[in-house]
Model the fold of this input.
Amino acid sequence: MKKLINIVAADDKNGLVSRLTRVPTNSYTMNMRSPPPKLLLVRDDEFLMHDTGRDHPESPARLQEVYRLLDRGFSGHRLPVGAIGILPPRPASREELTAIHSEEYLLRLEEAALAERGYLDHPDNRLSYDSYRVALLAAGAGPAAIDELEAKSATAAGALIRPPGHHAERAAPLGFCFLNNAAVATRYWQQRHGRKKIMIIDWDAHHGNGIQAAFEDDPEVFYLSIHEHPTWSFPGTGWSEERGHGPARGTTLNLPLTPGSGDEPVLRLLKEVVDPAMESFAPEALIIAAGFDGHRDDDMSGLAYSSGLYHHLGRHAATGAARYCPGRLLFQLEGGYQPALLATCLGNFLAGLLAAAAEET
Ligand SMILES: [Zn+2]
Done:
């Protein structure tokens, strides 16, 4: 098994290491509760090497802010940092990628990066010499984390990666996305570990057209997305009428919200629609496409979420996984384009996730 690095070792200004790792010597004072749930986070400075040039919102600064907060032990977020370990990524294999993408597209993407063409298909999808290699690592982060979850070395895992993935189609990049990280992880979980029924919950501000396209004919993958209504928002898909095809009708569920919605409709949908959908589908694994661009100060959408909503979303993910698929919760970073705000909202999400996970054990 890979060595897991405890993040607090990097910075212990607050004395967290000594407080959390002190071993009680007196049986009367020994804490008899089970150890806190372990969350594995995939991080690697290689993800900063995908260079999108000046003035592009999907910038390395996004992850730099997230990693900085991680190095500070998520100070200000009241996280049980001793429960967090770091996992390095590995590149996705050809076989893992071709479960979702065409060979021709993979060659086209690799060639565009190595030839330093600047972008692929549309100037939104900027890339650099290193982008193909980095995209393979982003797509392989999910499978690497899934292997650890299946080995029971953690009860939840997250991939702090870029480029994001949920807009990437079988043979085309879209909206800063090149490889569909969530779709690759889903097929990997099914094919390598035999978990058949996978639920993907996507609350990035934008509809994950690429995830939907990958699974809209597959009744064993439930794709549920809460996003800004396609009338007002990129990429123009994700209408509530899109429900999946044939035997998969009903395992695609789009819940579009109008601009200015705020938190309340999300909380209501989680309770009235998402929970019943999860109960009837009973997933064997849960993947969260975690985008933070719905925040009111992120100008990529008009959804007007508060920072606190992400705490609820973290709680919801951990509670749902504990109920239907304990130990099999994976989240993958999608959008979120104000770097400092992204880090704050992610910290809130993790705080909610770990708090709920601790209550469930
Ligand atoms: Zn987005």
Observations:
- The domain at 36-360 is CATH 3.40.800.20 (Arginase; Chain A).
- Residues 1-32 have pLDDT under 50 and may be disordered.
- Residues 339-360 form the longest helix (22 residues).
